[in-house]
Amino acid sequence: MATMKPLVTDLVSTINHVPSNFIRPLGDRPDQLQLQSTIHDFIPIIDLQGLNSSNRSQVIQKIEHACQNYGFFQIVNHGVPEGVVANMMKVSKEFFNLPESERMKNYSDDPLKTTRLSTSFNLKTEKVSNWRDYLRLHCHPLEDYVHEWPSNPPSFREDVAEYSKQVRKLALRLLEAISESLGLEKNYINKALGKHGQHLAINYYPPCPEPELTYGLPAHADPNVITILLQNDVVGLQVLKDGKWITINPVPNTFIVNIGDQIQVISNDRYKSVLHRALVNNEKERMSIPTFYCPSPDAIIKPAPQLIDNDHPAQYKEFDYNEYYKKFWNRGLSKETCVDMFKA
Ligand code: OGA
Ligand code: NI
Q1: Residue 311: how many CA atoms within 13 Å on its side-chain side?
Q2: For the chain, which domains are there?
Q3: Could you report the per-residue pLDDT of 198-225, keeping only the tens digit for each?
Q4: Which atom of ligand 1 lies at the shortest distance from residue 288's CA?
Q5: Whose CA is nearest to atom 8 of ligand 1?
Q6: Counting beta carbons within 10 angstroms of the beta carbon of residue 316, is it exposed (0 to 12), middle (13 to 18) or buried (19 or more)?
Q7: Global pTM exceeds 0.90
Protein backbone atom coordinates (compact mmCIF):
# COMPACT_ATOMS: atom_id res chain seq x y z
CA MET A 1 0.00 0.00 0.00
CA ALA A 2 1.32 3.40 -1.00
CA THR A 3 0.83 5.04 2.39
CA MET A 4 3.15 2.46 3.94
CA LYS A 5 6.14 4.40 2.59
CA PRO A 6 7.76 6.14 5.57
CA LEU A 7 9.15 9.11 3.58
CA VAL A 8 7.16 11.58 1.50
CA THR A 9 10.00 11.47 -1.02
CA ASP A 10 9.07 7.85 -1.84
CA LEU A 11 5.33 8.19 -1.36
CA VAL A 12 4.90 10.97 -3.88
CA SER A 13 5.43 8.93 -7.07
CA THR A 14 2.73 6.45 -5.99
CA ILE A 15 -0.20 8.85 -5.43
CA ASN A 16 -2.34 11.53 -7.12
CA HIS A 17 -3.95 12.86 -3.96
CA VAL A 18 -2.69 13.82 -0.55
CA PRO A 19 -3.30 10.87 1.82
CA SER A 20 -5.76 11.68 4.62
CA ASN A 21 -3.14 11.77 7.39
CA PHE A 22 -1.63 14.90 5.77
CA ILE A 23 -4.90 16.84 5.43
CA ARG A 24 -5.26 19.82 7.75
CA PRO A 25 -8.65 20.61 9.28
CA LEU A 26 -10.65 23.37 7.57
CA GLY A 27 -9.61 26.72 9.01
CA ASP A 28 -6.02 25.57 9.35
CA ARG A 29 -5.01 25.36 5.71
CA PRO A 30 -2.40 27.37 3.83
CA ASP A 31 -3.49 30.26 1.66
CA GLN A 32 -2.04 29.29 -1.69
CA LEU A 33 -3.11 32.55 -3.35
CA GLN A 34 -0.65 34.33 -1.12
CA LEU A 35 2.17 32.15 -2.38
CA GLN A 36 1.23 32.66 -6.02
CA SER A 37 0.76 36.42 -5.88
CA THR A 38 3.67 38.20 -7.51
CA ILE A 39 3.86 40.97 -4.94
CA HIS A 40 5.80 39.78 -1.96
CA ASP A 41 6.67 41.81 1.06
CA PHE A 42 10.20 41.73 2.26
CA ILE A 43 12.28 41.42 5.35
CA PRO A 44 15.37 43.62 5.83
CA ILE A 45 18.49 42.76 3.83
CA ILE A 46 21.67 43.51 5.74
CA ASP A 47 25.14 43.73 4.20
CA LEU A 48 27.58 42.21 6.70
CA GLN A 49 30.62 43.67 4.94
CA GLY A 50 30.21 46.75 7.10
CA LEU A 51 30.72 44.77 10.32
CA ASN A 52 34.47 44.89 9.75
CA SER A 53 34.61 48.61 8.94
CA SER A 54 33.94 51.97 10.49
CA ASN A 55 30.28 51.33 9.56
CA ARG A 56 29.96 48.65 12.24
CA SER A 57 27.62 50.66 14.43
CA GLN A 58 25.26 51.32 11.49
CA VAL A 59 25.10 47.61 10.72
CA ILE A 60 24.43 46.86 14.39
CA GLN A 61 21.58 49.37 14.31
CA LYS A 62 20.07 47.63 11.30
CA ILE A 63 20.30 44.31 13.09
CA GLU A 64 18.60 45.81 16.14
CA HIS A 65 15.80 47.19 13.97
CA ALA A 66 15.32 43.88 12.16
CA CYS A 67 15.33 41.85 15.40
CA GLN A 68 12.85 44.19 17.05
CA ASN A 69 10.44 44.49 14.15
CA TYR A 70 10.69 41.22 12.23
CA GLY A 71 12.69 38.65 14.18
CA PHE A 72 14.10 37.85 10.73
CA PHE A 73 16.65 39.35 8.34
CA GLN A 74 18.54 38.34 5.21
CA ILE A 75 22.29 38.72 4.98
CA VAL A 76 24.60 39.37 2.02
CA ASN A 77 28.43 39.43 2.03
CA HIS A 78 28.21 36.92 4.86
CA GLY A 79 31.70 35.48 4.29
CA VAL A 80 30.71 31.85 3.61
CA PRO A 81 32.43 31.01 0.29
CA GLU A 82 30.07 30.41 -2.65
CA GLY A 83 31.79 27.11 -3.48
CA VAL A 84 31.19 25.78 0.02
CA VAL A 85 27.49 26.68 -0.23
CA ALA A 86 27.23 25.15 -3.72
CA ASN A 87 28.78 21.87 -2.52
CA MET A 88 26.40 21.77 0.44
CA MET A 89 23.35 22.20 -1.80
CA LYS A 90 24.67 19.66 -4.30
CA VAL A 91 25.46 16.93 -1.81
CA SER A 92 22.12 17.49 -0.03
CA LYS A 93 20.22 16.98 -3.24
CA GLU A 94 22.31 13.91 -4.03
CA PHE A 95 21.46 12.48 -0.64
CA PHE A 96 17.71 12.75 -1.24
CA ASN A 97 18.17 11.29 -4.72
CA LEU A 98 19.78 8.12 -3.34
CA PRO A 99 17.74 4.90 -3.60
CA GLU A 100 15.21 4.51 -0.79
CA SER A 101 17.06 1.55 0.76
CA GLU A 102 20.28 3.56 0.96
CA ARG A 103 18.62 6.61 2.55
CA MET A 104 16.60 4.51 4.99
CA LYS A 105 19.79 3.27 6.68
CA ASN A 106 19.72 6.61 8.51
CA TYR A 107 16.01 6.55 9.46
CA SER A 108 14.81 7.11 13.05
CA ASP A 109 11.73 8.59 14.77
CA ASP A 110 13.62 9.35 17.98
CA PRO A 111 14.10 13.15 18.30
CA LEU A 112 17.00 12.67 20.72
CA LYS A 113 19.13 10.73 18.26
CA THR A 114 21.96 12.98 17.09
CA THR A 115 21.99 11.82 13.46
CA ARG A 116 18.77 10.76 11.77
CA LEU A 117 16.62 10.88 8.70
CA SER A 118 12.96 11.39 9.48
CA THR A 119 9.72 12.83 8.16
CA SER A 120 7.07 15.42 9.10
CA PHE A 121 8.03 16.83 12.56
CA ASN A 122 7.52 14.29 15.35
CA LEU A 123 5.41 11.30 14.31
CA LYS A 124 5.04 10.24 17.93
CA THR A 125 3.21 13.38 19.05
CA GLU A 126 1.50 14.98 16.05
CA LYS A 127 -2.04 14.45 14.77
CA VAL A 128 -1.49 15.57 11.17
CA SER A 129 1.64 14.83 9.17
CA ASN A 130 3.65 17.41 7.26
CA TRP A 131 4.88 17.21 3.68
CA ARG A 132 8.55 17.15 4.59
CA ASP A 133 11.42 14.73 4.99
CA TYR A 134 14.55 15.81 6.78
CA LEU A 135 18.02 14.70 7.66
CA ARG A 136 19.15 16.12 10.97
CA LEU A 137 22.73 16.20 12.24
CA HIS A 138 24.68 17.58 15.15
CA CYS A 139 27.79 19.37 13.94
CA HIS A 140 29.56 20.91 16.92
CA PRO A 141 31.98 19.74 18.22
CA LEU A 142 32.49 18.23 14.79
CA GLU A 143 34.77 15.38 15.90
CA ASP A 144 32.06 14.07 18.24
CA TYR A 145 29.54 13.57 15.45
CA VAL A 146 31.07 13.37 12.00
CA HIS A 147 31.57 9.58 12.21
CA GLU A 148 27.78 9.14 12.63
CA TRP A 149 26.90 11.05 9.47
CA PRO A 150 25.91 9.33 6.23
CA SER A 151 28.93 8.11 4.27
CA ASN A 152 26.96 8.13 1.05
CA PRO A 153 27.19 10.30 -1.11
CA PRO A 154 30.95 9.79 -0.76
CA SER A 155 31.74 13.50 -0.34
CA PHE A 156 28.90 14.04 2.19
CA ARG A 157 31.02 14.24 5.36
CA GLU A 158 33.66 16.47 3.84
CA ASP A 159 31.19 18.89 2.21
CA VAL A 160 28.92 19.16 5.24
CA ALA A 161 31.85 19.50 7.68
CA GLU A 162 33.28 22.38 5.67
CA TYR A 163 29.88 24.07 5.45
CA SER A 164 29.30 23.63 9.20
CA LYS A 165 32.65 25.17 10.10
CA GLN A 166 32.06 28.16 7.85
CA VAL A 167 28.53 28.73 9.12
CA ARG A 168 29.73 28.46 12.71
CA LYS A 169 32.16 31.34 12.12
CA LEU A 170 29.27 33.35 10.72
CA ALA A 171 27.04 32.46 13.68
CA LEU A 172 29.69 33.65 16.14
CA ARG A 173 30.00 36.98 14.30
CA LEU A 174 26.24 37.38 14.35
CA LEU A 175 26.06 36.60 18.07
CA GLU A 176 28.62 39.34 18.74
CA ALA A 177 26.60 41.80 16.69
CA ILE A 178 23.34 40.78 18.37
CA SER A 179 24.94 41.11 21.83
CA GLU A 180 26.11 44.61 20.94
CA SER A 181 22.71 45.50 19.52
CA LEU A 182 21.23 44.70 22.95
CA GLY A 183 23.78 46.92 24.68
CA LEU A 184 25.57 43.88 26.09
CA GLU A 185 29.29 43.23 25.85
CA LYS A 186 30.31 41.67 22.57
CA ASN A 187 30.90 38.15 23.91
CA TYR A 188 27.89 38.07 26.28
CA ILE A 189 25.77 35.60 24.29
CA ASN A 190 28.80 33.50 23.38
CA LYS A 191 29.57 33.05 27.07
CA ALA A 192 25.93 32.30 27.93
CA LEU A 193 25.81 29.20 25.71
CA GLY A 194 28.07 26.88 27.71
CA LYS A 195 30.10 24.73 25.35
CA HIS A 196 27.78 25.66 22.46
CA GLY A 197 25.91 23.37 20.11
CA GLN A 198 25.14 23.39 16.41
CA HIS A 199 22.55 21.30 14.59
CA LEU A 200 21.81 21.18 10.91
CA ALA A 201 18.73 20.03 9.07
CA ILE A 202 18.37 19.30 5.40
CA ASN A 203 14.66 19.77 4.71
CA TYR A 204 13.34 18.14 1.56
CA TYR A 205 9.84 19.12 0.43
CA PRO A 206 8.77 17.05 -2.61
CA PRO A 207 6.17 18.49 -5.00
CA CYS A 208 2.71 17.97 -3.54
CA PRO A 209 -0.40 17.08 -5.60
CA GLU A 210 -2.71 19.18 -3.35
CA PRO A 211 -0.58 21.85 -1.66
CA GLU A 212 -3.69 23.70 -0.42
CA LEU A 213 -4.44 20.87 2.03
CA THR A 214 -1.19 20.53 3.94
CA TYR A 215 1.98 22.23 5.17
CA GLY A 216 5.63 21.50 4.66
CA LEU A 217 6.01 22.78 8.21
CA PRO A 218 3.18 24.41 10.19
CA ALA A 219 3.67 27.61 12.19
CA HIS A 220 6.38 27.35 14.83
CA ALA A 221 9.12 29.32 16.53
CA ASP A 222 12.65 27.89 16.62
CA PRO A 223 13.80 26.66 20.06
CA ASN A 224 17.49 27.49 19.61
CA VAL A 225 19.53 30.73 19.68
CA ILE A 226 19.69 31.79 16.05
CA THR A 227 18.87 29.97 12.84
CA ILE A 228 20.81 30.55 9.61
CA LEU A 229 18.81 29.25 6.66
CA LEU A 230 20.05 28.37 3.20
CA GLN A 231 17.40 27.49 0.60
CA ASN A 232 17.12 26.63 -3.08
CA ASP A 233 15.28 28.97 -5.45
CA VAL A 234 11.77 27.66 -4.73
CA VAL A 235 9.47 29.90 -2.70
CA GLY A 236 7.82 28.44 0.43
CA LEU A 237 8.94 30.17 3.64
CA GLN A 238 6.46 32.53 5.30
CA VAL A 239 7.01 34.75 8.33
CA LEU A 240 4.29 36.21 10.56
CA LYS A 241 4.44 40.01 10.69
CA ASP A 242 1.70 42.04 12.40
CA GLY A 243 -0.73 39.15 12.11
CA LYS A 244 -0.06 38.67 8.37
CA TRP A 245 1.96 35.94 6.65
CA ILE A 246 4.79 37.45 4.60
CA THR A 247 6.16 35.25 1.82
CA ILE A 248 9.94 35.38 1.56
CA ASN A 249 11.31 35.38 -1.99
CA PRO A 250 14.56 33.41 -2.20
CA VAL A 251 17.49 35.70 -3.05
CA PRO A 252 20.66 34.03 -4.45
CA ASN A 253 23.76 34.14 -2.22
CA THR A 254 21.91 35.19 0.90
CA PHE A 255 21.09 33.46 4.14
CA ILE A 256 17.97 34.12 6.16
CA VAL A 257 18.65 34.63 9.86
CA ASN A 258 16.04 34.39 12.58
CA ILE A 259 15.97 34.90 16.30
CA GLY A 260 15.18 31.76 18.28
CA ASP A 261 13.55 31.30 21.68
CA GLN A 262 16.85 31.50 23.60
CA ILE A 263 17.52 35.05 22.37
CA GLN A 264 13.99 35.95 23.43
CA VAL A 265 14.87 34.74 26.93
CA ILE A 266 18.38 36.27 27.11
CA SER A 267 17.08 39.60 25.77
CA ASN A 268 14.26 39.49 28.35
CA ASP A 269 11.65 39.86 25.57
CA ARG A 270 13.32 42.75 23.76
CA TYR A 271 13.65 40.46 20.77
CA LYS A 272 10.92 37.97 19.96
CA SER A 273 11.24 34.57 18.39
CA VAL A 274 8.82 34.90 15.48
CA LEU A 275 6.40 32.33 14.05
CA HIS A 276 7.18 31.03 10.59
CA ARG A 277 6.08 28.13 8.41
CA ALA A 278 6.79 26.43 5.09
CA LEU A 279 4.27 25.87 2.30
CA VAL A 280 4.67 23.32 -0.47
CA ASN A 281 3.75 23.54 -4.16
CA ASN A 282 2.73 21.11 -6.89
CA GLU A 283 5.57 21.69 -9.34
CA LYS A 284 8.97 21.87 -7.79
CA GLU A 285 10.92 20.22 -5.04
CA ARG A 286 12.01 22.67 -2.39
CA MET A 287 15.08 22.32 -0.22
CA SER A 288 16.04 24.33 2.80
CA ILE A 289 19.05 23.87 5.04
CA PRO A 290 18.73 25.54 8.44
CA THR A 291 21.68 25.67 10.83
CA PHE A 292 20.36 25.82 14.38
CA TYR A 293 22.98 27.45 16.56
CA CYS A 294 22.25 26.51 20.17
CA PRO A 295 23.52 26.31 23.75
CA SER A 296 25.07 23.03 24.91
CA PRO A 297 22.52 20.88 26.78
CA ASP A 298 24.02 21.78 30.18
CA ALA A 299 23.99 25.56 29.62
CA ILE A 300 21.86 27.55 32.07
CA ILE A 301 19.77 30.09 30.20
CA LYS A 302 18.25 33.17 31.80
CA PRO A 303 17.52 36.82 31.00
CA ALA A 304 20.69 38.97 30.98
CA PRO A 305 20.84 40.80 34.36
CA GLN A 306 21.74 44.02 32.48
CA LEU A 307 18.33 43.91 30.79
CA ILE A 308 16.36 43.54 34.02
CA ASP A 309 15.20 46.57 35.99
CA ASN A 310 12.06 47.85 37.74
CA ASP A 311 10.35 48.60 34.45
CA HIS A 312 11.53 45.32 32.92
CA PRO A 313 11.32 42.56 35.51
CA ALA A 314 12.72 39.15 34.58
CA GLN A 315 10.23 37.50 32.22
CA TYR A 316 11.69 33.99 32.46
CA LYS A 317 12.98 31.67 35.10
CA GLU A 318 16.34 29.91 34.78
CA PHE A 319 16.42 26.56 33.02
CA ASP A 320 18.94 24.30 31.39
CA TYR A 321 18.77 23.98 27.64
CA ASN A 322 18.39 20.23 27.76
CA GLU A 323 15.06 20.63 29.57
CA TYR A 324 13.90 23.19 27.01
CA TYR A 325 14.92 21.14 24.03
CA LYS A 326 13.12 18.02 25.23
CA LYS A 327 9.95 20.00 25.85
CA PHE A 328 10.10 21.47 22.36
CA TRP A 329 10.18 18.06 20.68
CA ASN A 330 7.60 16.47 22.94
CA ARG A 331 4.84 19.00 22.70
CA GLY A 332 4.59 19.18 18.90
CA LEU A 333 4.68 22.30 16.76
CA SER A 334 2.13 24.85 17.78
CA LYS A 335 1.30 28.51 17.62
CA GLU A 336 1.76 28.89 21.36
CA THR A 337 5.51 29.11 21.51
CA CYS A 338 7.41 26.79 23.83
CA VAL A 339 9.03 29.78 25.53
CA ASP A 340 5.74 30.65 27.23
CA MET A 341 6.16 27.53 29.36
CA PHE A 342 9.28 29.03 30.94
CA LYS A 343 7.74 32.35 32.01
CA ALA A 344 8.77 33.68 35.42
C1 OGA B 1 12.76 24.93 10.27
C2 OGA B 1 12.15 25.90 9.34
C3 OGA B 1 11.76 26.72 7.13
C4 OGA B 1 11.93 26.34 5.71
O5 OGA B 1 13.30 23.91 9.77
O6 OGA B 1 12.73 25.19 11.49
O7 OGA B 1 11.54 26.82 9.82
O8 OGA B 1 11.86 27.23 4.88
N9 OGA B 1 12.28 25.75 8.01
O10 OGA B 1 12.13 25.18 5.42
NI1 NI C 1 11.89 27.03 11.90
Answers
A1: 2
A2: 8-342 (2.60.120.330)
A3: 999 999 999 999 999 999 999 999 999 9
A4: 10
A5: 237
A6: buried
A7: yes
